[in-house]
Design a protein that fits this description.
This protein is of the alpha/beta class. The chain contains 7 helices and 18 strands. It is globular, with a radius of gyration of 21 Å.
């Protein structure tokens, strides 16, 4: 069967040696279907030579029709950030532990991936955030995030004091360990462990979640995702900002971190039958209905 994806990029969690064998198996599967395989330079360096093309991220962005992330959620986050500006859809094959967004199990990747390659899939758009650190009127750092932006203290210092503005309006000043600004995708990540709410991925919203606030009345709050948020560092030692807990920069007192929705989204492809609620049940150990009480079509 012909496929709408004739050039597919593979990204593996190259720090884990066992991922190499899976990447090779997936590449062989793609070759059998007449698909050109593209590898990023880090993945290619970790698994050795093959019949694939080794390209830079920018080259992949201009050539690939689909990207496959083989690893955990961290791998998926990194690939989505890199390729979102190019509009390339991403499929996640879970070679990690949790797998909130890498939803295809390693044991069942062949039929799931085959169905997607045949053009039968569920597609969803996930929003991203762009963060800019502004210092003395200049932008000194810029980064994308799919999960969250976290402004926090270092592990060796006391509390950090942050002032928050939304669309130019003063919101509050808080003292604590930090503040999380999360997308719906990130609402099931660090924000969830800090008692934030779960936002469905199709919601156009953000959530602000204080981390261990000194004042217990500082509670999580949901906002529309078209606002501009500025988190200003008022006090504290060794403050820093992290995007998806993967890219960091140190901050100075007086720095403002401007956080806004990115002008593009990332597109996730899932096999037919994908259910966000089934993912939540499986990962959060929510109680299942007895099969005798399930309605037709509700079984996973």
């Amino acid at each position: 069967m012909s496929t709408p994806f004739t050039k597919v990029a593979l990204f593996g969690r190259f720090q884990t040696p066992s991922v190499g064998a899976s990447v090779r198996d997936i590449a062989a599967f793609l070759f059998e279907r007449g698909i050109d395989v593209l590898l990023d330079q880090n993945t290619a360096a970790s698994i050795g030579p093959g019949n694939w093309q080794v390209l830079s991220t920018e080259q992949i962005g201009h050539q690939a029709h689909l990207a496959i992330a083989v690893g955990g959620d961290g791998t998926m986050l990194g690939v989505a950030r890199l390729l979102a500006p190019f509009g390339i859809p991403v499929v996640g094959i879970n070679h990690g532990r949790l797998g909130f967004i890498t939803d295809i199990a390693l044991a069942g990747w062949r039929p799931a991936l085959g169905t997607i390659l045949d053009g039968d899939f569920y597609s969803e758009e996930r929003s991203l955030l762009v963060s800019r650190v502004q210092r003395n009127g200049e932008t000194v750092w810029r980064e994308l995030s799919l999960n969250d932006v976290v402004v926090s203290r270092s592990s060796r210092s006391g509390m950090i004091e942050l002032q928050v503005e939304v669309d130019g309006q003063y919101m509050y000043t808080q003292r604590g360990d930090g503040l999380i600004v999360a997308t719906p995708t990130g609402s099931t990540a660090y924000a969830l462990s800090a008692n934030g709410p779960i936002l469905h991925p199709l919601l156009q919203g953000l959530v602000l979640v204080p981390v261990a606030p000194q004042t217990l009345s500082n509670r999580p709050i949901s906002l529309p995702d078209n606002v501009s948020i500025v988190v200003r560092v008022v006090g504290g030692r060794e403050p820093r900002v992290a995007c998806d807990m993967q890219v960091f920069t140190d901050l100075q007192i007086g720095d403002g971190i401007r956080i806004e929705r990115a002008p593009f989204t990332t597109r996730f492809l899932h096999p037919p039958g994908y259910s966000y609620f089934a993912t939540l049940r499986g990962k959060l150990n929510w109680q299942e209905l007895p099969s005798s009480l399930q309605r037709p079509g509700e079984a996973d």
